[in-house]
From TrEMBL:
PROSITE patterns in the cross-refs: ADH_SHORT
Entry protein name: Beta-ketoacyl-ACP reductase
Ketoreductase domain ranges (all copies): 3-176
Any Pfam family the entry gives: adh_short_C2
Upper classification of the organism: Bacteria, Bacillati, Actinomycetota, Actinomycetes, Streptosporangiales
Listed SMART domains: PKS_KR
Record SUPFAM superfamilies: NAD(P)-binding Rossmann-fold domains
Keyword set, alphabetical order: Oxidoreductase
PANTHER family associated with the record: 3-OXOACYL-[ACYL-CARRIER-PROTEIN] REDUCTASE (PTHR42760:SF133), SHORT-CHAIN DEHYDROGENASES/REDUCTASES FAMILY MEMBER (PTHR42760)
Family: Belongs to the short-chain dehydrogenases/reductases (SDR) family.
GO MF annotations in UniProt: oxidoreductase activity, acting on the CH-OH group of donors, NAD or NADP as acceptor
Amino acid sequence: MSRSVLVTGGNRGIGLAVARELAEAGDNVAVTHRSGEPPEDLFGVRCDITDTAQVDAAFKEVEEHQGPVEVLVANAGMNKDQLLALMSEDDFSSVLDTNLTGSFRVAKRAVRGMMRKRSGRIVLISSVVGLLGSGGQANYAASKAGLVGFARSLARELGSRDITVNVVAPGFITTDMTDALPEDRQNEIKKNVPLGRFGAPEDIARTVGFLAGPGGAYITGAVIPVDGGLGMGH
């Protein structure tokens, strides 16, 4: 049977690839977007995940359209890279508010229906940076590392209700952000990746699809790197 799926930040990049992967598997997929327009082939709701009222309104709209959310993929995120000595408090707190607290907001709202149904899947999109660290990204790394502790705590808290909570940690993925990097910087990054290349959004999507599908039924509290080996051992 088709499930009700919500992917935050699902109008482009990794989020869009995840949304389409799950839709192709037969699920009813909705995506949130803060700006721009949703893809024509997916149900979109405008939502800024830093605003609890907007999160609640988005969930209500999705619930009216396709029923209570049974699979949540918390993908929406942002970065404001800066060296610590130059980083403002807003640079730090706003990234955590979006990436970490935003995931808290959507997960808290999603588990209401999941707990009633006694089943559900939650996948949080972290980053290899949250495991390795990265100069100039203390705020981003802290927010993405925080998702690991958050997910594992939820996995223990919700496991008795047959709700799984897992983390996918992408490495360097071909997106508009990586395309904008100078060629010499791209080559420098690739030298540190054992597979010698960037991944594709579809690589992340297939992993999320596995965790959200039958194959992931007995996996919870896991952190799965999809990074070409970059974060190996972390």
